[in-house]
Design goal:
Blueprint (H helix, E strand, L loop, with lengths): L7 E5 L11 H9 L2 E4 L2 H10 L6 E3 L5 H13 L4 E3 L13 H9 L3 E5 L4 H7 L9 E5 L3 H6 L5 E5 L4 H12 L4 E6 L7 E6 L3 H5 L9 E5 L3 H18 L4 H12 L3 H8 L19
Parallel strand pairs: 1-4, 1-5, 2-3, 2-4, 6-7
Antiparallel strand pairs: 7-10, 8-9, 8-10
Helix pairs in contact: 3-4, 9-10, 9-11, 10-11
């Protein structure tokens, strides 16, 4: 049985939809903590009831975070263990909690993550985009967000009443050929994950109930990034004939501006060999 350490804040990821996604460790920590700080006590009680957890709840949401963080910090400094959760997923990712975590670090209070579900990571893992880097932009913020979008892949959250307008805005800004993955109701009964060109996305959303639920959008890499990576791989291939993998990746990154880590991963890929046809047997002299 897990025992929580005195004076420790546990940042606990909870399911994003399917309650069966709770990890055994997260359940033990929630059961053993002195207090659970949650975004909405009504939502969290559903999860706790599923696992028979009776730990006291206190609300920590965007409207009381500044005040409540101070009270919770005092309890931690008195030796209490507190589990921090949000309504779904990992606290601090477009959810309250970062202010309390920061306060703990400033006061040398131990912070321990209990990893688990994240809507952003779930969508990225199901996107099929192989880029070595991406940007998490949280909830879409209209024109301000559009101006910051470049060639790198981006993960966005969006609400159902704005999803169609957002997709059209992305289409107008990024063009019809950029690929997007739309994740709808991830891990829930009516989950859908679909990858398509931005040109096809508005029509896809016109399907039955496809503008209902919670959305995660994953924009694939733009053509500029794909060209840069292709050039980096070309230079890497030349250098790899003469240099060790790490040195070749470092130098190729300096020449092309592509991420060294990305090129190093490329250098470690297994080389696919073409099957060698057996040589014909020499003809016997007549």
């Amino acid at each position: 049985m897990t025992r929580t350490a005195a004076g420790t804040l546990y940042v606990v990821a909870t399911p994003i939809g399917n309650l069966a996604d709770s990890s055994a460790r997260s359940i033990e920590v929630l059961r053993a903590a002195d207090l659970i700080a949650c975004e909405d006590t009504r939502t969290s009680r559903t999860l706790l009831a599923r696992h028979g957890i009776a730990t006291e709840l206190v609300s920590l949401h965007q409207h009381n975070e500044a005040f409540q963080s101070g009270k919770l910090l005092d309890l931690l400094l008195q030796g209490k263990s507190i589990a921090l959760i949000s309504d779904a997923g990992t606290p601090g990712l477009s959810d309250p909690g970062a202010r309390l975590v920061e306060a703990c670090h400033r006061e040398d209070v131990r912070v321990t993550p209990i990893p688990g579900a994240s809507a952003a990571m779930a969508a990225w893992s199901a996107s099929g985009f192989s880029s070595p880097q991406f940007r998490f932009a949280g909830f879409f913020a209209g024109k301000a967000s559009l101006e910051k979008l470049g060639a790198e892949p981006v993960i966005l959250y969006e609400a159902p009443h704005r999803i169609r307008d957002t997709v059209i805005a992305l289409l107008e800004r990024l063009g019809p050929e950029r690929e997007i993955v739309i994740g709808r109701e991830l891990t829930k009964k009516f989950e859908e994950v679909a990858r398509m060109r931005l040109a096809e996305a508005p029509a896809w959303l016109e399907g039955a109930h496809r503008q209902d639920g919670e959305f995660v959008l994953v924009l694939g890499p733009g053509p500029e990034m794909e060209r840069d990576l292709a050039e980096g791989e070309r230079v890497l291939k030349i250098l790899s004939d003469k240099l060790p993998a790490g040195d070749a990746a470092r130098l190729a990154a300096k020449i092309t501006g592509v991420s060294r880590n990305a090129l190093y991963k490329v250098s470690l890929r297994p080389v696919s060999l073409r099957p060698v046809s057996p040589r014909p047997s020499p003809k016997k002299p007549k």
